[in-house]
UniProtKB/TrEMBL annotation:
Protein's organism: Lolium multiflorum (Italian ryegrass)
Protein name: Histone deacetylase
Pfam families: Hist_deacetyl
Positions contributing to a divalent metal cation binding: D191, H193, D287
EC numbers: 3.5.1.98
Protein's GO biological process: epigenetic regulation of gene expression
Cited SUPFAM superfamilies: Arginase/deacetylase
Length: 498
């Protein structure tokens, strides 16, 4: 698809570069009904699309027209039992014992159940997952810089069970697809709830870093119980190959724009400098907005969108997904504005909501895109000391990742610090051939060739094994420690790497 020049440079981003944006919308998703009393209302996506259309943002994007995800594609992230249940389950075939083993409970319309049995459940899941999969492929193809699927972002679902209104974790599906093209993928979650399903799936995967900013602790609307899902403490840092690639930023209720910014910008600046992702997935759950029916944060639409603006500025392929959000007029306002941010038109769209089919939903906010924030103030626990502790704990964990990565590559290669301002302006360019010539005379630096042909994980393992054998005094030819397909790349004078 031809996309040259179909978006504008964002005046709020200093790089001044255009972005090629693609956008997914499936009207079939809007007709899904969780039940009359359920807080999850998929029609919020149709409302978002109505605003996007009325603000005339569609011509600035390439529309993604795609099929639903296939059963084979979903089989990669679901257990066999759960996949078959989702595929075959209807209100008419509901069996309590079988469904509840997978955390799918009562029939549609029962407000006491988070994950009801709904009509067209499999089709619904396949449609929103198919949108995220297609968006990831658009980024992988290089034809888009930013891809949007506001119907996605179902971050609580696990491979064998539903959770928190989420049945299939389309984020995991999209990240797996991105990994086919991009060596490192960063996942950032600004939903008010912890992104537990995504974190759990990639906790031991060194190619993916997950960062979640969320409400954590007891009290608030939930009384004396832990805020859902009760996970995501700062001490959860990943495991195995993924150690320190899990980063949680737990916050108290009442977090406002200024407080959020104090945490998000310095933490994400360090994450970008240390992990250096090749692609970013941002889950834009809108339940962190002020006035949400479930969330207890106090963010404005602009404050929420600052996260999109900041990550957009790095010029790394960016996938924007929806997520939570239960005051649906606020959700639609937010995601419409963030669509404008992605394109670069956020300063051009008026605050007055145009006439369209859903304008009556915005009466309580004065028919304004940027509705008034409830002045509830920050929780008493969110003192300067408390904020400093949250930020410092997160930065310490990023520093731990820095040290781990520094010692996971060739001992003679020093980790290069990144200039913050330069990193903010544009994505670091991939280094080209060096003037220093390798043994085969092709002009490519030996270390670059090892990374290109073998991959980061294999090269790191290679040097670790060389070091172990040197310590034992049993070192053999270094090239023999590499996988067979990589050995030809290793026949270089390794002293050139020192």
């Amino acid at each position: 698809m031809e996309m040259e020049g179909n978006s504008l440079p964002s005046s709020s981003c200093p790089d001044g570069r255009k972005r090629r944006v693609c956008y997914y919308y499936d009207p079939g998703i809007a007709n899904v009904d969780y039940g009359a009393q359920h807080v999850m209302v998929p029609r919020r996506v149709a409302m978002t699309h109505g605003l996007v259309t009325s603000y005339k943002l569609l011509p600035d994007m390439e529309l993604l027209r795609t099929r639903p995800a296939t059963e084979d594609e979903l089989a990669g992230i679901l257990t066999d039992d759960y996949r078959r249940l989702l595929r075959d389950l209807t209100p008419g075939t509901y069996r309590a014992d079988t469904a509840r083993r997978h955390h799918i409970g009562a029939l549609s319309g029962d407000e006491r159940n988070d994950n009801p049995v709904i009509d067209g459940l499999w089709d619904y899941c396949a449609r929103y997952a198919g949108g995220s999969l297609a968006a990831a492929r658009a980024l992988g193809s290089g034809k888009s810089d930013i891809a949007i699927n506001w119907s996605g972002g179902m971050h609580h679902a696990c491979s064998g069970e539903a959770s928190g209104f989420c049945y299939v974790n389309d984020i995991v599906l999209a990240i797996r697809e991105l990994l086919a093209t991009f060596p490192r993928v960063l996942y950032v979650d600004i939903d008010v709830h912890h992104g537990d399903g995504v974190e759990k799936y990639f906790a031991a995967d060194g190619r993916v870093m997950t960062v979640s900013f969320h409400q954590y602790g007891r009290g608030g609307k939930g009384g004396d119980t832990f805020f859902f899902p009760g996970t995501g403490s700062a001490g959860d840092v990943g495991e195995g190959a993924g150690k320190f690639r899990t980063l949680n930023v737990p916050m108290k209720a009442g977090m406002d724009d200024a407080g959020y910014r104090e945490l998000f910008v310095p933490i994400m600046r360090e994450v970008m400098g240390v992990f250096r992702p090749d692609a970013i997935v941002l889950q834009c759950g809108a339940d962190s907005l002020s006035g949400d029916k479930l969330g207890e944060f106090n963010l404005s639409v602009r404050g929420h969108a600052e996260c999109v603006t900041y990550l957009r500025s790095f010029n790394v392929p960016l996938l924007l997904l929806g997520g939570g959000g239960y005051t649906i007029n606020h959700v639609a306002s937010c995601w419409c504005y963030e669509t404008a941010v992605a394109i670069g038109k956020e300063k051009e769209i008026p605050d007055d909501i145009p006439h369209h089919g859903y304008e009556h939903y915005y009466k309580d906010q004065g028919y304004k895109l940027h509705y008034g924030v409830t002045k509830v103030g920050r929780n008493a626990a969110s003192t300067k000391e408390h904020m400093d502790n949250i930020r410092n704990e997160a930065l310490k964990n990023v520093q731990n990742l820095h040290e781990l990565l520094k010692h996971g590559v060739a001992p003679s290669v020093q980790f290069k610090d990144i200039d913050d301002q330069e990193l903010y302006k544009q994505r670091p360019q991939t280094s080209g051939p060096k003037k220093k010539r390798g043994r085969d005379g092709d002009g490519e630096d030996p270390m670059d060739r090892l990374h290109r042909l073998c991959g980061e994980a294999d090269v790191s393992n290679f040097f670790a094994r060389v070091g172990e054998e040197n310590i034992r005094g049993t070192a053999s030819s270094p090239a023999l420690l590499l996988p067979n397909e990589c050995r030809s790349a290793a026949f270089v004078n390794l002293s050139e790497c020192q």
